[in-house]
Amino acid sequence: MSRMPYPDVSTLPELTQKMLAGSPLNIVRMGAHASPAIFQATGQMSYACVDPENIPPRWREAAILRVGWLSHSEYELHHHRSLARAAGLTDEEVAALEERAYSRLDPVLAAIAAFTDETVLLVSASDETLERLRAQISEQMVINLVLCIGLYMSMARLIGVGRLEIDDIPLTALATGVDKPGSSGS
Length: 186
Known about the structure:
about 60% helix, AhpD-like, globular, mainly alpha, 9 helices
């Protein structure tokens, strides 16, 4: 059981209720305790991180898996192992990420994994690790990854502080947003 009760949906603002209706996950339910502005901004940031135009899904899931393992977040790993496979990561790549056996990964995934590790554990990646990543991906993608890593670190802390129960069924796809211009959501 979680350490804090989930909010009574009927008492929440209309937009928060709408957002909850689209995602019954425990983390979203607990996050609804936040002020509407923070809850909505977090949702928008989440949608931006999962948009493949902003971060390719394989790269995103490699980083999120590393955040999950480093944060000891079984909740995140429960969902993102299946999402990583849906994004095209193989069982061998997922195992290499878990075991920190980055030599078994392609150079881009290896650079992302090492960068994520240092960003989570040391706050700032070393010059060498950053340069190795910048040699593989654009500076825009580096910054997008930093922000995605930070978002999932925040989610891991919300999960940990709330001791959220793991949802019964792991996700196999992520929504890319309901309020994205030109989109009806997915």
